[in-house]
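Need tokens for this chain, all 362 residues.
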Amino acid sequence: MNFKRFGRPAVIAIAAGLALSSCAANEGATPADDASASTLTGTLNGAGASSMDAAQQAWIAGFQTANTGVTINYEPSGSGGGREAFIAGGTDFAGSDSYMSEEELAGTFASCAPDSKAVDLPVYISPIAVIFNVDGVDELNMDADTLAKIFSGAITTWDDEAIVALNPDATLPSETINAVHRSDDSGTTKNFTDYLGQAAADVWTEKASDTFPFGGEGAKGTSGVVDAVTNGTNMIGYADASQAGSLSTAKLKVGDEFVAYTPEAAAEVVAGSPLVEGRAADDLALDLNRKTTNPAEYPLVLVSYAIVCNEYADPAQGELVKAYIEYIASAAGQTVAEEAAGVAPLTAELEANVAAVLATVK
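Here are the structure tokens for all 362 residues:
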């Protein structure tokens, strides 16, 4: 079957955003290579996950410093928007916090060579933080069942007995909970709902989805959720931890302990997660283990993928994409992201697997 092509307005909107994005980010980063040795030239356009925007800006700066003939633009339009633009041929690569669906993989990709497909390559690992702004509350414990009830609307006040039981020493106000979700198609939402669906299966019966399945307050992009929680009253939301800023963040119950997010705990979950079954050998989508009871692991984690063609219709673009993604997935590139966004670097094994797939990209 052919996957339905997405409309021109969506692609035009992405392209307009790219014109204003990251192409000027040339300073202050560790070079990817010796600039004098680079012969690469051209322009790369990418779009997608807003969660990884800070890392993308750092990667772009490093790569452009080392490859002065290359301009890279990245528009943080959200994972769904990024995949749509890439499928329709509006960009050269996509960033996505959720891997491609079977329906997407069964379709065609306008930037790829005929009979060629796209693949998911993990390049970014980060915890998802449960962020909150509640009067008189600095620390908050949550378990998956309680979170599921809050975001589905079953729990509506901060002094609900379920929240009190998890936080016996907190002074919880008798106020309405204002829960904020992503209003756009979001891989962060898909990871958040996947966690709730696995860890609180008796409560959260909706399937994991880029689109939030319930009502309530929505905000566009990671920055929109962070702004809503920051500027509101008695708020709770979810966001890539690298953009949580000074907001308070909840600890999650894992096994018998309450665990704060750390990059290391997020990386532990990824290291113990298998590849998704039934996909092409060069597709590295991961089936994340959300049900862990090991307190050394933080199960509310996202993996962002670089989605690229395994063969490009334009070989010159394929060469540029290959070089850029090789850089961001390398030890040097991962160090840049760790410094810029506080994320967890890829394990040596995952780094090697991504490099092996990229070696075949053309």
